[in-house]
Structures are given as C-alpha cells and as structure tokens.
Amino acid sequence: MKFNTKSTEEKMIKSVAAHENNLSTIRASLANSAIVSKVTFEYYGAATKLVDMASVAVTDPKTLTITPYDRSTLKAMVKALLASDIGITPMDDGSVIRLVFPPLTEEHRKSLAKQIQKMGEEARVAIRNIRRDANDDIKKQKKDGEMTEDEQKAGEKSVQDLTDKYIKQIDELTSKKEKEILHI
Questions:
Q1: What pTM value is reported for the model?
Q2: CA–CA distance from 96 to each of 5, 31, 66, 81, 126 (Å)?
Q3: What's the pLDDT tens digit per position in 29-53?
C-alpha cells in the first residue's frame, strides 16, 4: 500500500497560505487594506470584523480610507483601530476614517525584518511538524504490516520532497517581504 500524501500536502498548502496572510498584515509604509483585515470591534454585543462593516479603500499610496456602512459604528471602529497593533492613529471626520501611513524609520524597518524572519521560522516549524506527523503515520502503517519497507522509504521520500517544496515557498515569501520592508 502506497502512502497517500494528499492530506499532508493540503496541510502544507494551508500553512503557506496562513504565512502569506500573516505577512500581508505587516505594513511596508504603503497603504494596504490587509492591515485592517483582523481588526474587530463590538457591534450589538458581538465581535465583528471592521472589513465586514465598512468599505476599505486605498486612496493613494500613503492613505487608507474606511467608510462605515452604518455611521453609528464610526466611534467603535476608531476605538478598535486605536486598540489594534497597526501603529497608526486613525483620523475621522464624522463619516470617514483615514489612516495615513508615515514613512518607516530605519530602526522600525529592522525590527519588522526580525519579526518577518520569526514568522518565517514559525511557518517552517509548522511544515516540519506536518512532515513529522506524516512520517509517524508511515511508520505506524509499516509497523501494522500495511506497507513494506520499500513503500515506507518511498512514502518518507515523497513527504520529504513536499516538505522541501513548501519550505522553499515559505523562504521565498519571507525573503520577498523582507526586501520589500528594507528597500522602500
């Protein structure tokens, strides 16, 4: 019986996608609507994503505008933005919230680069954990007599090939984001 790597690969793809999503929330001094994608506020007693209750648009490379669908939520949105870790003070004119992205200092760029490296390492660890789980499954199947030693070696090799492929993708994403931050 050959080891099925499909579920292992699906998990690795999800890990890469999660890493890419996490990287998109790091601001590179340019306005990016993904920055506010995780901001939530209290709306009728429930935590609600800001992007679900407002139109978020990039008006110029340094400005993001947030237009609430319901004006009564404006103050709650401003409060949520202030409490979030985006590091930008929102300005509101009573109907629209503006986030003006200041240029990054060299020190802040370096700290963001370290944060990106850390996120990259966490993503690589997640991939390696998926590999470990897959290899444990292969060893269990071999022990239970469901596969031969040759099938075990082939299964472990295919899992390692997947691991190498997805760690390379994570390294490329991490490197690209780091260059984006350091060379603006």
A1: 0.69
A2: 49, 16, 6, 13, 40
A3: 677 777 888 888 888 888 888 888 8
